[in-house]
Write a structure and sequence with these properties.
The protein is of the alpha/beta class and 737 residues long. It has five domains: 4-105, GIY-YIG endonuclease (3-Layer(aba) Sandwich); 112-184, no CATH class; 204-290 and 301-386, P-loop containing nucleotide triphosphate hydrolases (Rossmann fold, 3-Layer(aba) Sandwich), CATH 3.40.50.300; 393-437 and 499-632, Rossmann fold (3-Layer(aba) Sandwich); 644-731, Alpha-Beta Plaits. The protein contains 23 helices and 30 strands. The chain has a seven-stranded parallel beta sheet with strand order 11-12-10-13-14-9-15, sandwiched between helices. Strands 16-26-25-17-24-23 form a six-stranded parallel beta sheet, with helices on both faces. It is globular, with a radius of gyration of 30 Å.
Length: 737
């Protein structure tokens, strides 16, 4: 047994430290073990990440204690953590924190012990109970409940009987009840009745996709399958049957879905097929629930994990398949360090396990599409909706023509109003999509040109009508709406720009009898609001649902026959090279909400740029065509997927300090980089100020991440970052804000 352990302590130092393994622990300390080690003048907790026979350091200290006998991370997950740290320029501690959830790591995390009360046998007969009822009515009540409902936790029993624990304890002393201690599992899906479902018959395209996935699971050839299926084509059924195939061979699975589509609908589908062996991991779980779910997986009681981004790191043993649904979703990218993309890490975990990886989407990311073209991934296509239901028909409305003909700027085109009226008459449902909340998106004074801008961020304030406040959507600052212009004092303030609130208000005047609901971050602040609105909509209690991107994704409502996109130009004009791709994906996603029942769907897209290629390709539902033209322009400019892009954002409260440091960084970096790397900046970030911080960016592009990361790490080490300046390194950045 090696005498030296390499330990990463839970303090971000980006270093491994050598410790002696004491004789007493040599048999039990393993790779991934959690240990206590002396550190400086105190002790620290850490993980054993490697072993060595000798150390360059003299007089090594020894590991003090082993925290848990069974390692929480295995060798594969350690390798994955190291890869994340190297690739995404994060410290090894950050990477380990990523693969091991806080709920499992933190001090005091543990199972809840509870007292279970069971009726002793023989149970008291009717006569004995009657006698007891007269002498000690509370004790009798407890016994009656136990007789009727069976054993139950002390806390529940006491509440049901309206009594105190001492009453139950005196019953135990009289040997009429038995108290035992046991582990209470916090089940996030408790109280849900779920009816089991059987596998559905597959259509030929689905069957072909399934057989390719099975082949991948058996032989790892191909290692990754991209399932490109139009909305409503039955991708989930392919996932379910592939998972069943693995399960029958004793292999587990992880299914990632974007947080936003991790709805009860989704979870129910998996649970109704696989029952108790499903574990769910997402951000709305309490720490306790997360801890217990993690251990259910760790101990092999749950073999299939459904969850958002971080579920990728679930400790599933003998993993057979990782599914990444909606693989193009930007929400798979973590916003804090390490800024990993769960889709890409899934492919790496698949490679290390090894196991098959299945990526699914109606509009795959260009990166994935390119990996098919260059032979890294295999492609499987579902070109029809199940039952050959028609794809929706998409109509583009030129809002310039509308404005010209009506002589004013209307929020709703006449076509859209007519289409909604028709749906209301036919008792069909409509969804209206606008990715901006609030009532008016700018507050300005036509007299002097004043615009209400957040004092902390370089963005306009949005007017929220109900509470009559103006709010910053970046930092959340709230301010009463001024009656007069703060600059010139005239009472001439104007409110312009359209948010979801305003769409709702106009709808209510246009269709006073319609049942209208709005779903955005403002109406879903209550925990259950999201589920309630969706439930009402599904049950047909809502005619028109207005919402932000919250309503665009993954939801299935057979009653919806019309989808209106209020302003397709919003995402198109973002300062980002992915703006066209985003718009195209969004339109396809939104269109996917229409006509999933028996009546064919219609999509009306309002835009001021009707001939934009992304909008036209979306109208034709032409994925290949869009990719071809978009890839051509990306290739010319050496943008992803033809290069990797690293975006370094520097922020500080002091504009001068951050600009100077950004210049120093770019100046030092340029000569250190290989010639093929393209370096741009420093330039002010598109969001040039946020929460009081001034923001600058330095951007690098190259076909090799390594060619950029190593010189970057060296440069950052050599350059002392001035106090108050924050650096964020984003490898394969998806957002350039
Ligand atoms: Zn003014
Ligand atoms: Zn702000």
């Amino acid at each position: 047994m090696p005498k030296i352990a390499k330990v990463v302590v839970e303090i971000a130092l980006d270093r491994e430290f050598d410790y002696q393994v004491p004789e007493a622990l040599s048999a039990t300390v393993r790779l991934g073990s959690r240990v206590h080690v002396p550190f400086g003048h105190s002790t620290a907790r850490g993980y054993v990440v490697g072993f060595a026979d000798h150390s360059d350091r003299q007089d090594l200290k020894a590991i003090t204690a082993l925290i848990s006998p069974k390692p929480l991370i295995n060798e594969t997950m350690l390798k994955l953590a190291r890869w994340i740290g190297d690739y995404y320029a994060a410290t090894i501690e950050q990477a380990i924190r990523t693969v091991l959830p806080c709920a499992v790591r933190r001090k005091g995390a543990g199972f809840i012990e509870q007292t279970l009360v069971t009726l002793a046998s023989p149970a008291p007969d009717a006569a004995a109970l009657k006698a007891l009822r007269q002498r000690a009515p509370k004790q009798a009540a407890v016994l009656e409940i136990l007789q009727r409902d069976g054993a139950q936790p002390l806390t529940v029993l006491v509440r049901a009987a309206g009594t105190t624990p001492s009453v139950v304890k005196s019953l135990a002393e009289k040997k009429m009840a038995i108290l035992t201690r046991e582990t209470a599992m916090r089940d996030p899906l408790a109280d849900q009745v779920i009816l089991p479902t059987a596998p559905l018959a597959l259509f030929p395209e689905q069957a072909a996709a399934l057989s390719l996935v099975k082949q991948s699971m058996d032989t790892l050839k191909p290692p990754v399958v991209l399932l490109h299926g139009v909305t409503g084509s039955g991708k989930t059924e392919v996932y379910l049957q592939a998972i069943r195939y693995g399960l029958d061979q004793g292999r587990g699975a992880i299914v990632l879905v974007p947080e936003i589509s991790l709805t009860p609908q989704t979870v129910e589908r998996f649970r109704s097929r696989f029952g108790e062996t499903i574990a769910v991991l997402h951000s709305h779980l309490s720490d306790g629930e997360r801890h217990d779910e993690w251990y259910r997986i760790y101990e092999g009681k749950a073999r299939i994990v459904v969850g958002a981004r971080s579920a990728l790191f679930a400790p599933v043993d003998r993993l057979g398949l990782i599914v990444v649904d909606e693989e193009h979703e930007p929400s798979y990218k973590q916003a804090e360090a390490p800024r990993y993309n769960a889709r890409d890490v899934a492919v790496m975990r698949g490679h290390l396990e090894p196991c098959a990886v299945l990526l699914g989407s109606a509009s795959p990311a260009l990166e994935s599409f390119c990996n098919v073209r260059n032979g890294k991934y295999a492609l499987s296509e579902l070109t029809h909706r199940v039952d050959h239901r028609q794809m929706p028909c998409m109509r583009i409305v030129d809002m310039r023509v509308e404005a010209e003909q009506s002589g004013r700027m209307d929020v709703f085109s006449r076509d859209l109003v007519e289409a909604i009226r028709k749906r209301l008459d036919q008792a069909e449902q409509t969804m209206l999509f606008l990715n901006r909340r609030g009532f008016s998106t700018s507050v300005l004074c036509p007299a002097c040109g004043y615009v209400a801008v957040c004092t902390q961020c370089a963005v306009k304030m949005t007017w929220h009508k109900g509470c009559n406040e103006i709010r910053c959507h970046i930092c959340g600052r709230v301010q009463r709406t001024p009656n007069r212009c703060p600059t010139c004092g005239l009472p001439t303030l104007k409110f312009s720009g359209i948010g979801t609130q305003r769409v709702e208000a106009i709808m209510r005047t246009l269709f006073p009898k319609a049942r209208i609901e709005r779903m955005d971050a403002d109406t879903t602040t209550h925990k259950h609001a999201y589920g309630r609105i969706l439930g009402d909509f599904k049950a047909g209690k809502i005619d028109v649902l207005i919402g932000t991107q919250m309503i665009a994704k993954g939801l299935h409502f057979p009653g919806v026959t019309l989808v209106g996109v209020m302003n397709a130009d919003l995402s198109l004009h973002m300062p980002d090279f992915r703006a066209a791709e985003r718009t195209f994906q969004l339109l396809l996603q939104v269109a996917g909400r229409a006509g999933r029942g028996d009546v064919p769907g219609e999509v009306i897209v309002q835009t001021f740029t009707p001939f934009n290629p992304a909008i036209q390709a979306a109208r034709r539902l032409d994925y290949q065509g869009f990719c071809d033209q978009e890839l051509e322009s990306r290739k010319e400019l050496l943008y992803p997927p033809f290069a990797h892009l690293i975006c370094i954002t520097l922020e500080s409260l002091r504009a001068e300090a951050v600009e100077r440091f950004a210049q120093a960084l770019a100046g030092r970096l340029a000569p250190a980089l290989p010639k093929a790397v393209i370096l741009a900046g420093p330039i002010p970030a598109p969001l040039s100020r946020a929460k009081g911080h001034y923001r600058f960016q330095v951007i690098m592009r190259s076909t090799s991440v390594k060619a950029m990361i190593l010189p970057l790490k060296e440069t950052l080490k050599a350059l002392r970052c001035p106090p108050g300046v924050r650096i964020a390194v984003d490898v394969d950045a998806l957002s350039m804000m």
